[in-house]
Design a protein that fits this description.
Blueprint (H helix, E strand, L loop, with lengths): L8 E6 L4 H15 L3 E8 L12 H19 L3 E7 L8 H14 L3 E2 L1
Parallel strand pairs: 1-2, 1-4, 2-3
Length: 113
């Protein structure tokens, strides 16, 4: 029996853009190549952390969002959702949990990474 046989829909929840590929890119590729739907939920915006201090937070956010969308496309991910919390500002609080639960209910994954 194929390991992913009972899984039709998977969700990857990640704190930052590009963490999904680093953490479970191979699993995502295996799922999508088996015809499964995979969804990314990226908690933060990627608006901080650049080495070039001349880049604005808005520029970094847009660049990282585009990079994440392209990486997801290469792996066959069905949809990328950005919750858009600021880098370094993510808290296990009511706002984050509400946003995450909404996506779980909307996307109805069989498994969450």
């Amino acid at each position: 029996m194929e390991v992913f046989e009972p899984v039709e829909r998977a969700m990857v929840v990640t704190p930052h853009p590009d963490d999904a590929e680093l953490g479970c890119g191979g699993t995502v590729a295996k799922l999508t190549s088996a015809g499964k739907k995979v969804f990314y939920v990226v908690a933060t915006s990627g608006n901080k952390g650049g080495r070039d201090t001349d880049m604005s937070g808005d520029y970094l956010r847009k660049a990282r969002e585009e990079e994440q969308k392209r990486a997801a496309e290469v792996l066959g991910v069905s949809e990328v959702v950005f919750l858009d919390f600021g880098d370094g500002e993510l808290e296990d609080d009511h706002d984050f949990r509400r946003a995450l639960v909404y996506q779980i209910r909307r996307l109805k994954p069989d498994i969450i990474f």
